[in-house]
Structures
1.
Amino acid sequence: MALTFEDIARVANLARLELRPDETAHTLSQLNGFFALVEQMQAVNTDGVEPLAHPAALLGEVALRLREDIASEPNQREASQASAPAVERGLFLVPKVIE
Amino acid sequence: MTSSMNNLDLHDLGVAELAAQLAAGTVSSVEVTQHFFNRIQQHSALGAFLALDADVSLAQARAADARLAAGERTPLLGVPLAHKDVFVTRDFPTTAGSKMLENYRSPFDATVVSQLASAGMVSLGKLNCDEFAMGSGNENSAYKPVQNPWDTSRVPGGSSGGSAAAVAARLVPAATGTDTGGSIRQPASLTGITGIKPTYGRCSRYGMVAFASSLDQAGPMARSALDCALLLSAMAGPDPDRDSTSLDLPALDYAADLTAASQQGGAKPLQGLRIGLPTQFFGAGCAPDVLAAVRGALAEFEKLGATLVNVSLPLTELSIPVYYVIAPAEASSNLSRFDGVRYGHRAAHYTDLTDMYKKSRSEGFGDEATRRIMIGTYVLSHGYYDAYYLKAQKIRRLIAQDFQTAFAQCDVIAGPVSPTVAWKIGEKGDDPVASYLADIYTLSSSLAGLPGMSVPAGFGAGGMPVGLQLIGNYFKEAQLLGAAHQFQLATDWHQKAPGVSA
Amino acid sequence: MSKDQKSLLVQGYEVVIGFETHTQLTTQSKIFSRASTSFGAEPNTNASAVDFALPGALPVMNKGAVQRAIEFGLAVNAHIAEKSIFARKNYFYPDLPKGYQISQFEIPVVQGGVVEFFLDGEKKSVRLVRAHLEEDAGKSLHEDFIGQSGIDLNRAGTPLLEIVTEPDMRSTAEAVAYAKELHKIVTWIGICDGNMQEGSFRCDANVSVRKPGQPLGTRREIKNLNSFKFMQQAMDYEIRWQIEQIEDGHEIQQATVLFDPDTGETRSMRSKEDAADYRYFPDPDLPPLVIGRDWVEKTRSEMSELPRVMAARFMTGYGLSEYDAGQLTQSKATAAFFEAVAAASGQAKLASNWVMGELSRHLNMEEKSIEASSVGAAQLAALIGRIADGTISNNAAKQVFETLWIGEGQDVDAIIEAKGLKQMSDNGELEKIIDDVLAANAKNVEEVKAGNAKAFNALVGQAMKATKGKANPAQVNELLKKKLG
């Protein structure tokens, strides 16, 4: 299952990453080396096996905890925006979003 | 304030001993804090710390002294520690070892941080780590590498490299770390200290910068099982209001169990303990010097009454691709929030929104983080999900079931932590796969969510430390700590100090 | 193809429509955080660490959102899943702080279900595929910024129930009727406030066309239809556009489109490359949502009567037609009003006519809700009582209603008295008047006897005039006929 330059470009775009042209070839060879390792998984028979999403689920059903519907978080805008790159009138500023 | 203690010896004391001195009034928290702070500054070349603030630490120390003066006597009161820089803190910046979060200031504390602060511990600062906890040598920190105090040309291990180095060099008596695939156990092993990764869900993940959500766990790193037990008692516990994956199990007083056990004594305190040795952990993949130290430690366990049995964990090798599919997949999603919009690095120059995202993220993330995001995005992408992510999660269940089969024949599983002792900084070069392969002994227990410890077991090539790994069944932290404690009562590997610690 | 199906064709094409509706749930706090969901707060003041997606923040599920999902599932006869999974939908957008939306993918909380309603007297049944819980995104504001957008995360994390239909609808009228029925259901059971201007109820329409008998055509999705009026307009335009494209020999490409109410046109949104690859995977921060059958049964027993059940009860209990029963169960308030009037007057049919007729007309004219009606249930019941016992004619009753409505009077009997609206009930007096009329209009009488119906009506008119409208027209008719033989 060898990756191609197109795969790298597609994945980088999905992840909003920018690889320099010289980086791309290097990344490609590293990832191909990695995926050769990953191919070993195909040898394992997993017919009828459920995925294990939560480790504790091996012991028994883990159920989502539910909290009461109470709005107890106060306004914390100032503290939360302290590390913001660009804020105006309480709004985070970004380059214009085009629909 | 005079003290009958020779201040130079303060850093040789462990957490329990310091707490006793503080309780007895022979030394104040301010004195202790100042002492460690001075040492940290003296040994800044180790690169262990990313953030320090004397004012903050001393203020916390004064508050602890006030509580002591008021008569409070609790096990951790006034004792300093430091936090791995993936725990968010209000009092110090949090970078997670990344340029992406340079100067980031969290408006809230991680639950684990709050709990240790409530217990009266004094924070000495934030510890260096591999970027977003991704790495095994602390060479992936965006700021600086960390040096192993035993040989400063070598790595301390990772990702909790700063935590391990700081404890080993006696810059702090204890530190918090996080372990996703071995990041507490491996650096503990490489620096000759004690560390434990509890059962998944035992400690709250709220406030831990997320790497791989179904694997990340917080844990203590210190110089003895007893000290780890003291910290774990304060760190563990359910956090139902903030972390939906934290388990509904009350925190235990792990230290009380240990002290009771030591008092019982007896020649064979571990009589009846069956230690399983997976054949896959003792094969050709492990360096002979490491195996020798591990076998030496196991012989000590036998003297204490334990029996050794052979077990098998057939999917051990498969744990590498399984982990390196699941962890990057979860990480690729967890790291999407770093987009330059609300906090963190934003590029200075960009043309439009998409360009801002790409430049900010590419500038902010280092090579390993980028690589893992790429891998993670790929294995989740359309057409590959079933063959990679879903497949890996299925094998994960088989791996967990393998452990249960093994635990039918033994109480704890033991073996090496790392196939080699610490390597030279820069030695592994640019071969990520080689690094991944070295995680072989710790990944499977992480995938299964089992608790695991590293205990100093001796030395290997070049006089570098070797750790013994102990893996317990779910919720059996007390059993692990108890066995380690007995071992440490009978041996003194954990008391050895590197030259730099003088 | 049936004659009815044929008649729905547009330029020979069959229209296929499916809807996805996002309903904001009426919880106090957000779905995964404890920040408030109140509308209209200052930007970014209704947001916690979880909503800002700060490093280390984690989601915690709101029981109230689950409760409302269960209520919806019961209201549409769907299956409530014993176990459902939250999944991450990954994409980058400034109003999506985590870079993923927590939603449900493979296993939603509500499965199946059906929404039934009337369209021009015909009963329609639209099947639901599913309804699932997810979080809303924040908002991007463009107006005040040049070249930039301002992001407000107050809305981020508001609980949504996304309701998805099968592509069962065959006309835009049917689709709007479906949307209105769904709106009624979610507001009736109280899980959504239905305020479309505030964005509480947002519809996306998936529209395609095909020649009858052909496989499904490629669909385009019209997003964010927030008014019933624009909904129909947008879909009609889209259908005409698609047909025109096909007739011109172009293939329809799958696309997401927006409706512009100013131009009345739909236009394709800027294409988002890789928009389809959301890399869904189960959210590792959230274990499976488990809903025990006892929770479902408890909810079922505590739910107030659902509109369709109530409508059925109106039919059997009050002898109303299916259509009338449907109309009266448009809202809980309307149904309650009707029942109060029916109970107090004992006249269900009259009550039904008046609520759907005069009362409705007046409410619509003044854009009032029934809760704000200027005529109360007790007053209307009293009025209907006077019609039923013959005191006043229907026409006179309308006058009384008007008087009550504008507040000129409060008491029905007092108004009848004051305006002299009492119907003439004394047959003797009436006969005398009719005799007078016949005597005064001998020529007309001749015409009637000759078979001229118009002349008869003129006599009726004369008689009514002579009684100043107070006679019962039916009585007048009867008496005249008797006297004229």
2.
Amino acid sequence: MFSELLLNAIASGVLLGGFYAAVTVGLAISFGMLDIGNLAHPAFVILGSFSAYIFNQRLGLDPILAALLMTPAFFVLGAAIYQVYFLAFERRGEEGLRGLAFFFGILFITEVALILGFGVDYRFVEARYIGPTLHVGDVDFALRTLVPFVISLAMVGALQLFMSKTYMGRAILAVSQDSLALRLMSVRPYRVKLVAFGISIATAALAGAFLIIIQPVEPSIGRDYIGRVFAIVVLGGMGSFPGMVLAAILLGVAESLTATFYGPSWSPAVAFGLLLLTLAFRPAGILGRRA
Amino acid sequence: MSDALLTVAGLGKRFGGFIALDGIDLEVRAGERVGLIGPNGSGKSTLVNCLSGILQNEDGSVRFDGTALDGLPAHRRTHLGLARSFQLPKPFGSLSVAENLRIPLLYTVDGRNGVRLTESDIAQRCEALLGMVALDGKARARPKDLTQIEMRKLELARAVAAAPKLLIADEAMAGLSHSEVDDIIALLLKLNEAGIAVILIEHIMRAVMSFSERLVVLVAGRKIADGLPQEVVNNPEVVRAYLGE
Amino acid sequence: MKHSHFWLAAAASVIIVFAASHFVSNDYFFFAGYVVLQYIVLAEAWNILGGYTGYINFGTSGFFAIGAYSSVVLHKLWGPPIPVLIVVGGVLAGAVGLAMGGLTLRLRGVFFAIGTLALAIVVQTFITNWDFVGGSRGVYIIRPPSAPLLGTYIHYLFLVMLALAGMSVAIARTIERSTLGYGFAAIRDDEQAAEAAGVPTLKLKLISTTLSGALMGMAGAPLPYYVTYLDPASGFNLSYAVNAIAMPLIGGTTNWIGPLIGAILLGTIQQAATVTISSSLNLLLVGVVLVFFVVVAPHGLIGLYRPRRKERIAQAERKVA
């Protein structure tokens, strides 16, 4: 009995972790690689959830399909925000703390705007894979967490290929390590960062769809995710994707075990507590990198 | 043991897999004028950062005025009498020029070695320091209103305000005109006459040659020469390092 | 003006404002005034760490709630007078600030800022799971029927917060003009150069964090008696964090006047807006104001004013030279 409980907790934790990886990959790019402290990243994920909700409720579209359609719009939004951030902070050399306050404000504005637009009720979507459960021996895999898990990993994998194989991807990696070297390659860092930040927000559209498939969403949920995404990025060693996925799954399992054996109301503390401990004792992350 | 002011033994510093400094030995006596030269990337700035405490060395040891420096944070080293100026001036932008000098006076001089500074003491010292670097009229100015050479003078004045026994001047003359370089050399000589040992790190050879009693050469993280300037300059290994093979 | 004179002036202002308030018959003034005064304390407290020392704290609500909930605990156990609650709230919040600082201040400012957010949520989670203080359901606090001094209890709370506001302003000014204040400014302007000049940066940052957190805890201590019903959602409301940042940013972050002006300005507008338009729209306004000021005028209204004055002086000096 206990082992069944444990196995299920771990299984759902792994699935949850895969989803967390999708939520975090955008921040792994903006904060891990570009050093932009985008506190508002979870807010864009929630925005993605609500846009999936609208498409699903009004047009009956599958939420993931809706998110894919919204990805270009989110990319443009990300590029626009980076534009403001660059003009206001990076150009003046005052990024860092003021930039954080900027994103904090955006986080807050997005949440309140969503409350004004949709109210504080929980919203959910409907799809054929929300409901059924796959049984493998003693372990249950709810499809509504399994499907996002699979597509999340696919998305992260695709981004990893993009980073290592394409010209733009390699330029982004270069900019994350050495802006000067990039300039010597006569690529303007600004344009590369613009594209990278746009991509990071575009991922939020998909992650948002996954979220609202997994659980009902209301505007203030974003706050629970701030700790999670930053904990995963730091624990994962900043820009490293493999490290991030590992950290995400670790966190997912930790939260799942806590929820199963101590109660779900302790979950927020797991991520943030993990973050504080990581910052205090191993800022370079599990696999070790700069912090 | 020698009575050197600064004793560096086998100092090593790595950044990941890259060895920035490898087995550096160096001695500086009280009141000495030492020049430190080397091609770009040879580790001069890393050495300064390790000595001043911004970076911590992995290997070797540093002793200053009888105290082991290893592991000490930068501010404690300054309290012991080891001051440095920064290659790119780092003034306190929101404070006036005079207030910039207050910081080392308040935090390094006041309360140390039985010295207690009153408001008028501080004002006097600020005036004297500003006069020494010919920035008298600029006491109330903000750093961003200063010219390049004025900023470098402020940078030096701020290091001197801490009443150090050893001053490390990190490329204080880069980009200055001929006469401006002479000004800085004259200033450093004046400081040395007052008893402050100086390590001068520079690319401008005539400045280094005229100023130094001893010349140290760093190449690719290793010390390859250490002696009288005239001898060092004619050392074939040094010539090779600068002119290439 | 010497420090002692300023403290006397602050105390005198507190007495004058309190005396003048006796001519106000509408109780709403005291309710709204309490909130504005509370924000003065929070803004000044935030600014000691954020504006003076340059380390941004997103977890104001955490420290504030520590003060509020320590009062709840003490109220249930013993019921001491408010000044005791304030001291306890301040000490506890200060201790938490010290602990958190010890964990995160050796890292870059970015990680400290994120750490403060983490702290607020961890504290909130603990409180939400602690049944003694009501957990997520919240707790009811009954106001004592009479006040230690003349007037109703809400008048008493008003005076208490007025005194705290005066004290926080005086503390901010005292720090600003002291050796400690110069050390903070050096850290803010260039931490490496500050270290090189002999400033013990870690120690000062810890002092700044502790002091800032303690003041925030003190501001939160009387809260349970003001609201009479306290639950984690309202006690840890993100708007505290946003306001504590927005107010000094608007007024000016480098001196003691900025947070005071920002708190009075933004606090009063919000009190008026909550009544006339919806409270959500009011919060949206604060968020927009914050972003606007961060982007356009990071040194606040005073920062916008100063450069023009400096330019005029510089021009005059150039003409003479």
3.
Amino acid sequence: MNESLHLWLIPLLPFAGFLLNGILGSRMPRRLVTAVGVLLPLASFALVLNAFALTSITAAKSCPSCGPVSAVLLPDVEALAHPWLDLGTLRVDFSFVLDQLSLVMLLVVTGVGFVIHVYSVGYMKGDPGYARYFSFLNLFLFFMTVLVLAGNILLMFVGWEGVGLASYLLIGFWFQKPSAAEAGKKAFIVNRIGDLGFLIGIFLLLGAFGTLSFFPMRVSLAMSPASHGGMLTVICLCLLIGATGKSAQLPLYIWLPDAMEGPTPVSALIHAATMVTAGVYMIARTHFLFDRSDFALATVAIVGAATAIFAATIGLVQNDIKRVLAYSTISQLGYMFLACGVAAYSAAIFHLVTHAFFKALLFLAAGSVIHALGGEQDLRKMGGLRTKLPVTFWTMTVGVLAIAGIFPFAGFFSKDAILCAAFLQGAGGKSLWFVGLVTALLTALYMFRLWYLAFLGEPRTPDAHPHESPLSMRAPLVILALLSICGGWIGIQRFSAYLGPATAANRAMPTATGQLELMLSVAAVCVALLGWLIADWFYRRQPNRPAKLAAALPAGYKLLANKYYVDEIYGAIIVKPLLVTSQYILGWVVDTGILGGIAWLLAGIASLTGMILQRWQSGNLRSYAAWLAAGAAAVLLFLLVPWAQVWPASFDFLWKVVRH
Amino acid sequence: MHLILFFLFAGLCLAGAINLLLQSHPINSALSLIVVMTSLAVLYLLLGAEFLAIAQIIVYAGAVMVLFTFVVMLLNAGREERTLGSRAAARIGFPAVAALLAVLATIILRAHGLSAAHLGVGLTDAPDSSNLVVLSQVLFHELLLPFEVTSVLILIAILGAVALARRDDPERTVEK
Amino acid sequence: MTFLHHDVPLAWYLLLSAALFSLGVIGFLVKRNLITVFLSIELMLNAVNLSFVAFAYQWHQVRGQIFVFFVMMVAAAEAAVGLAIIIAIFRVRSTLAVDRIDLMKL
């Protein structure tokens, strides 16, 4: 146990915030609630920075002639002395693991988390559920840090479920609105379906390795180099199902657009930067399993690419600003899965980090717009906000440029790394690369569409009086904008070098020549600029064009606008039959009919028996005496007659009677 | 000689018992029962239980049956009436009793060692001890405790009888 | 005084006892007067007493007679209390017919 790292405090501080604000929050003054809700995550972030510093300094001082260093070596595994489960052959500990991967993830989670907490102070001001909001947000932070730090897959599953719970609580935060309550339920239930796959994966892992901790698993797998495919593929596919549920990939993405019912900072934190990336993190954590199964990797890549382009097409025609960003999130997550699928785990994490920056920025800026317009979220009613909300405008512009992947913003570096890695993976890789490229075009297109509709042009609701957001909301925007600008400058090379020990793939990775890389980068940037041009033409120069195009292709437009009717299809195939089964078959037939019938029958028998037996208790002394005598005679008969001799004798007698 | 005595007084017992059933007035039944009891006393004498024979006359026929007679006369119970009642008693009871009697009779007659013509000798061979001496020796040495408990029982019975049969006297209620 | 052998088989005493007992049961079941029912109970007790004394004679045990002694005592106590109850019932119900005393029915 390394005392200087205080790993245990990282989740526990937000948990304390959850308890304090949750139990006492309604009785505390606003300022105190804010202080508890914001400062505890800040303390967590400070601890993560401390851990980062301590572990980085090691690298500089790793000379044998140096004196004893107080810094810490990675990976650092800490566990409670008392095990969690000690059942014969299975032993599971409460163990935290700090390695490069979890450190990077923690930096993102606590850092961006803290920034969003600050933003929430301004956004949720005046809301009656203020304390409840912060307690739930802190609860989320607790579970997310547990998920990241978990040293075994069972503890990770605890965090996994916990963030699902926090997500449900926060999506349905304004629970008086029926649509918000429904959305919360939908998110939790769809997540649960994915979690079933995760659980089965855990069981299979236990069966295959006998342990649930990551490092022992990795070591055990490394020592048996002959095991490929087969059971490992099944395990990976099960884990993938869990990841698709949590990270909103096909076919379990349907909850994320509806989750926009929650407050915008929640959408930024949970459904853009951190929770939805848990699936990617999990795959990176268990990459040593995926590396051995080509089939699983291919599935991951195809799922990622298909989701990316699928979501991008839907995002093109959405009119709600948050929906556009939601589909954009799904699409970008598809990129991360694509990266995992070509075993470029570092690239996936790199994109995870940059995506956290600019997606959170985009959501917070959108929140600023919504806040300024008094709750308006429809893009068709916005416009001309450039002059009215300058800070929001410029930070949003940075975010849009970043997500479009334009040099030198953050998104360019990470997206480029993914596309390059995909391209190098043979023929299949090239088609994946192409899909990614088209998605990049669409991404730029719909993001600039959003930009034009919201900020440029003439205001489409002239009687709104938008005002710039308070400092607590502007400051996070600026911070995230700065990160979106320089976040990518570390470069994929140095990034994957840092992450190497944690995420290096156990397979041969093709490398590219500098020339090929340059060409691919140029192609990506060109495609992004092309998207910008198209958006410019459609939404600035000829604003009537989109409507005319929609009129020209009504079927296509309707298909996209209704999200390919996926929700309706699921409803008809899955939801409706379940409802009918439970209501009619299980409800009427089984519950009322069979079970109720059995209960009614039993009661009837008891009552009938009672009615019959009641006649015996007549109060008549003589009949009582008579039955007494009969009973006594029966007992005596039973005791005194030698039945063993009588029975056969009587049978013989009867037999003789019958025969004659 | 004993045979004749036995038949005589056994017949008297049975006659008394059947008469008890046939009479309709309870006082007649009570008197029949006295006849049965005295006959039984003679049979006890035949079986060498002198003390019990005398106790039967004194206690049973002399005290208990007198008590019965007093109560009959006190309550002025008349002849039995024909009431509706339950037929179940007759329908179930008679067959039951018949079965009981049949079983007992069969067992008694079939069991070995019971139908020996000769019974054992008297209870004691010592020349100068009697039935009373033997009985009292056992009663007051080994079974002293049950004997004393029985006397407590009789005390309780007296108290109970007095409490149950007492008439609630209105003059005895406390006025305050 | 010593005793003589006699030639009445034990079985006959027992048969007599059984017959008396059965008559007592029949009386208990058939009679409609409460006091007569009680008398039948006494008859049953006496029948059993006879049985005990007979066996005591057969097996040289004086304890059989002691048991009869106790039975007599208990029967006396029981008769006293039972008759007191009958008096109490008569005071309330003014009848001694067994079928009329059915307050204990459900």
